[in-house]
Amino acid sequence: MPAIPPGAPVTPPPRDDAWFEALFTAHTTAVYRYFRRRLPAQGGGAGPDAEDLTAEVFATAWRRRADLPEDAELPWLYRTAGFVLANHRRKMRPVLVADVPEEPDDVDPMSLALGDDHVRRVLGVLSPRDRRILLLNAWDGVSGDELAEVLGVSRGGADAALSRARSRLREAWAAQARAGDTGEVPVAQVRARTAMPTLRPVQDPER
């Protein structure tokens, strides 16, 4: 094989079935957990909704595979998951949650997943954007360049947004105190809901 001259452009690998299988294997657990943590519990878990929405994200990734940024696939998937979740919530029946307003855009209301009333109330007073940033960081481990990619802002903008959200969380927590207010991933099911392409079985990485 001839040597590649220095500075010559490197042709990326084709985004074919093998590429998609690698993408699915690497990130299906993270995307499934994104939904499981943010959906209301159904019989002890997020159930088929989390599987369906995970499959929708990966089906979108396949259809728009030319748009996925190289080496930033997971932030792109998280951002797509946010849009998918927002659309799903608009279709759901209203859920009455004390002190946490329902929002029409891509939000992560903790009331749907957390049983700790104090934490739920504190997060409920934050803006939808602050809640989203804090949960991406705390639940999904997204920070730095990945957070910037998810939010569609610069690295500096993402760092500043996270810092502001944390500051407002501390302020809300202190205000509450002053007021005296003291899974296993079903990979097979997700795969069955992903229309393209057909993939070999993937083992749960936690097993």
TrEMBL record:
Domain annotation RNA polymerase sigma factor 70 region 4 type: ranges: 119-169
InterPro entries: RNA_pol_sigma-70-like, RNA_pol_sigma-70_dom, RNA_pol_sigma70_r2, RNA_pol_sigma70_r4_t2, RNA_pol_sigma_r2, RNA_pol_sigma_r3/r4-like, WH-like_DNA-bd_sf
GO terms for biological process, alphabetical: DNA-templated transcription initiation
UniProtKB keywords: DNA-binding, Sigma factor, Transcription, Transcription regulation
A Pfam family assignment: Sigma70_r4_2
Tree of life domain: Bacteria
Molecular function as annotated in GO: DNA binding; sigma factor activity
Limits of the RNA polymerase sigma-70 region domain: 23-91
Membrane spanning residue stretches: none
UniProt similarity note: Belongs to the sigma-70 factor family. ECF subfamily.
NCBIfam families from the UniProt entry: sigma70-ECF
PANTHER family: RNA POLYMERASE ECF-TYPE SIGMA FACTO, RNA POLYMERASE SIGMA FACTOR HI_1459-RELATED
Name the record gives this protein: ECF RNA polymerase sigma factor SigE
